[in-house]
Design brief:
Blueprint (H helix, E strand, L loop, with lengths): L1 H5 L5 E2 L17 H4 L12 E2 L1 H7 L1 E8 L2 E7 L8 E4 L6 E3 L7 H9 L5 E3 L9 H8 L3 E4 L13 E4 L3 E4 L3 E5 L8 E5 L8 E5 L3 E2 L6 E2 L1 E3 L4 E2 L2 H11 L6 E4 L5 E2 L3 H17 L3
Parallel strand pairs: 6-7, 7-8, 8-9, 13-18
Antiparallel strand pairs: 1-2, 3-4, 4-5, 5-6, 10-11, 11-12, 12-13, 14-15, 16-17, 18-19
The structure holds zinc ion (2 copies).
Length: about 280
């Protein structure tokens, strides 16, 4: 019996980084990758485990501005996003998540005050959220519209509904939709020296020219959103004050004038997909 239990593993998809419920053998499929917003890699469906990842890689933890710390894996794994730890006097919130979690990471995050809550923009970053939740005894806030994309269900997941959800530390989750029905960004009003920050995952995605952002149904497969879906994303964040946007990767940051960037980018995008010439 014990030997059997020891043989169970939480397999992880190598292409999207999603961890699955424990099983004796790898799952047949990864529904996240088989969805048209993702893809199965060139060599077919590949699986790994947390133990294997810990032997191959480590996490880099780096302050990005006062009160905000990035956590990313090196060498990059799966989609390659980095998570962000927002530190507030009412507790820390982990925004988005990454697959690799190990003892050095837990020690360093505890030294920064631990994690009171985890919130994730959309299913591509659910990664190994349950491992993070258990390590820090923190609930995971996910939008209920994306419930079916949770591959490892757990009582620690709190599904929120509607358009906004407040979190400790004056933070607000804003449902934008777009890339996923429950696509969410996080507003941090005291970020950027009090000018306000959006942590946006790739729901509002800072592009190579960091004066602009973009909005897509699928990034790897280049499937755009409709004009109305883009307008809904912009309208959802319009009531909030922000000057800076951190999207899902280390360098994808619009440092200043981000609200103007969102407006200009949406206009440019809608003009491009509705032009008849
Ligand atoms: Zn996958
Ligand atoms: Zn995505």
């Amino acid at each position: 019996m014990e030997a059997q239990e020891n043989a169970l593993t939480n397999f992880i998809c190598r292409t999207c980084g999603t961890q699955y419920p424990s099983s004796a053998r790898p799952p047949e499929h990864c529904p996240i990758c088989e969805d048209e917003r993702q893809y199965v890699g060139l060599n077919g469906q590949q699986w790994t485990t947390l133990a294997e990842l810990r032997s191959e890689r480590h996490n880099i933890i780096r302050s990005v501005e006062p009160g905000l710390t990035g956590i990313g894996t090196d060498p990059s794994f799966a989609i390659g996003q980095r998570a962000l730890l927002v530190q507030t006097a009412q507790g820390n919130v982990l925004w988005d998540c990454i697959t690799l979690i190990d003892e050095p990471t837990i020690t360093m995050v505890n030294a920064l005050g631990g994690i009171s809550a985890i919130a994730i923009s959309h299913p591509h970053y659910y990664s190994s959220m349950i491992e993070w939740s258990r390590a820090f005894n923190a609930p995971v806030y996910l939008h209920a519209a994306d419930r079916k994309w949770v591959m490892r269900p757990d009582p620690a997941v709190l599904f929120w509904e509607g358009e906004t959800q407040t979190l400790p530390g004056d933070l607000t989750l804003i449902r934008c939709g777009g890339h996923f029905a429950g696509g969410t960004v996080l507003h941090w009003p005291s970020g950027a020296e009090g000018r306000g920050v959006l942590l946006s995952g790739d729901i509002i995605n800072v592009v190579q020219d960091r004066r602009y952002v973009s909005f897509m149904y699928s990034f790897p497969n280049l499937i755009p959103l409709s004009p109305n879906a883009v307008r809904r994303v912009v309208a959802a964040v319009e009531p909030y004050t922000y000057d800076r946007i951190y999207s899902a990767w280390w360098e994808k940051v619009t440092m200043t004038d981000a609200k103007h960037a969102v407006h200009c980018s949406a206009e440019r995008y809608i003009a491009a997909i509705t032009s008849s010439t």
